[in-house]
Design a protein that fits this description.
- The longest helix is centred in the middle third of the chain and has 38 residues.
- α2 packs across α5.
- The protein has 18 helices and no strands.
- 86% of the residues lie in helices and 0% in strands.
Length: 517
């Protein structure tokens, strides 16, 4: 099989960048194509398509955490040098995924008449289209689940280049194919059929790439003896996967029940902007989870400590820039984007959510670490304990402070989660406190606080014009970058940054020369 994989900082950085591009490009395509899709389908059919995807997303719960379990245990086998275990792990997971995928397809197809005719408020003229759409979507459930297992193989091998070679076109086609279907005169089921074909093609490519990465996969070797191991890990992951969306969407339901639908809109709009900041930590966690699994299996504690600490450092440094900009320009952004009413109602929410998502980004690293070392039970149990507490906090603060209270509740949750997760990393993952000081994490947090506090003070003490705010923001960010370079960065960071800049410059020059020729 392949030679032992080396988990280095350069590999983590490269894969994170690839994942960032892989998530960012489809997002750009979605923003550009969405108005045309809505115009072509009409509001009601577009709403039906959106509902269909929500239902499909819910039925992804049939995954039972096995996609992540595949990544975990394949990475662990590679870390231990037990490559011969990979085919058994993968084919067992694929078999289970196929079974539960077919079960999910049968369930969705069976309840489709009930959904369309009784539960969802669908106009009579769209009933047939809605049924056909949901029947087609049911076929995609096993495809999506099995794809997650084969994708997990590539992630375990740290082949995020291959993952994104597949994911970018597939995710982009989700938004481009509706336009193609509209140009061809297809109705909604016809458009969904095109997307379904793309999903099958994605699965086929993942299978081929997985076999190339692990040639023994050519031979089926599933075994029921691995089921307890896979279900034990996947079951706890499933609990977190169910609870986390409740945390994310709970505040909007409480706002809608205690306040008004307009209040939901005023809260959701800034939340939609800020949530885009989650692309970076999500891209990093996709890379770190299999890396942590491999290093934990090898018992490479020093490397694991360094990568965890440095990941937090780099994430804080990058996320601080948009956080400061959102703090200082919140009102202007909302005014330009949505108008004066949203600027008046949502500015304080926007600023609080910017701070909350900065804290949330930091929390992604210990979350991935604890799951990566094989303790998803700890994370799941914490979420189950935390949920009723958070419900009470949100309810109270929304009742007292309105939508600002909901944003404050999110800040508070992140504020208590980070120290708890940090303590879990120390106690369970064995990451010592000195690892954070040795790798510059403490310095990055101090510098970040030194920039964040003045930014908040400027917002609280005085309202500035956009020109003055721009000058202040520029001064703050320049000072932040200088402090980061001279205080937070060590020599390894500076050498890597210089090398990256030189390589990028050389690449641009080569491209210009080739085009000029």
């Amino acid at each position: 099989m392949n030679k032992p994989l080396e988990i280095k900082g350069g590999l983590i950085a490269r894969n994170t960048l690839l994942n960032l591009i892989g998530q960012g490009l489809p997002l750009v395509v979605a923003v550009v194509t969405m108005p045309f899709i809505i115009q072509g389908l009409g509001i009601e059919r577009f709403g039906l398509l959106a509902l269909a995807w929500v239902v499909l997303g819910y039925f992804a719960i049939f995954d039972l955490g096995l996609g992540r379990a595949t990544t975990k245990f394949v990475a662990e086998a590679l870390g231990k040098g037990e490559e011969e275990q990979v085919p058994r792990l993968v084919w067992t997971a694929v078999t289970i995924q196929a079974f539960f995928g077919l079960l999910g397809a049968i369930v969705l197809a069976s309840i489709t008449p009930l959904l369309v005719e009784r539960i969802l408020n669908i106009p009579p003229e769209l009933i047939k289209e809605a049924k056909d759409t949901f029947y087609l979507l049911s076929l995609s459930i096993p495809v999506v689940l099995v794809s997650s297992s084969f994708r997990g193989v590539l992630e375990a091998f740290q082949r995020f280049d291959l993952v994104n070679i597949v994911q970018v076109p597939s995710s982009t086609l989700t938004f481009l194919l509706p336009l193609v279907g509209l140009l061809l005169g297809f109705n909604l089921p016809g458009i969904v059929s095109l997307i379904l074909v793309a999903r099958f093609a994605e699965l086929a490519v993942f299978v081929v790439m997985s076999i190339r990465s692990a040639p023994p996969l050519k031979r089926y070797s599933g075994t029921f003896t691995l089921l307890p191991r896979l279900f034990s890990f996947g079951g706890w992951v499933t609990i977190s996967s169910i609870v986390i969306p409740i945390f994310v969407f709970l505040d909007r339901f409480i706002i809608g029940s205690l306040l008004t639908l307009s209040a939901v809109a005023y809260y959701t709009a800034p939340h939609a902007i800020i949530s885009r900041l989650g692309i970076l930590p999500a891209s990093l966690v996709m890379t770190l989870f299999p890396a942590f699994s491999t290093l934990a299996a090898r018992r490479s504690q020093p490397e694991l400590n360094a990568i965890a600490a440095r990941s937090i450092k780099y994430l804080v440094m990058v996320e601080m820039v948009p956080t400061v900009l959102f703090l200082l320009f919140a009102e202007d952004i909302l005014m330009i984007w949505l108008g004066s009413n949203f600027a008046a109602e949502s500015t304080s929410v926007f600023r609080l959510l910017a701070i909350a998502f900065l804290l949330n980004a930091i929390g992604h690293i210990p979350f991935a670490l604890i799951q990566g070392i094989g303790r998803p039970d700890v994370v799941a149990k914490y979420h189950l304990i935390e949920l009723p507490l958070y419900v009470g906090v949100v309810f109270f603060l929304v009742w007292e402070l309105g939508i600002t209270g909901a944003a404050l509740a999110w800040c508070l949750r992140m504020g208590w989660t980070i120290p708890i997760f940090s303590l879990l990393c120390i106690k369970i993952a064995g990451v010592p406190l000195k690892a954070f000081s040795e790798n510059g994490t403490n310095r990055s947090l101090i510098v970040a606080a030194g920039v964040l506090i003045p930014s908040i003070a400027l917002v609280l003490l005085r309202e500035w014009g956009i020109v003055a705010t721009g000058l202040l923001a520029g001064a703050i960010l320049v000072g932040y970058l200088l402090l980061s370079w001279f205080i937070v960065f060590d020599q390894t960071d500076r050498d890597f940054a210089k090398s990256f800049i030189l390589q990028t410059y050389s690449y641009i020059i080569r491209c210009c020369v080739i085009r000029g020729a």
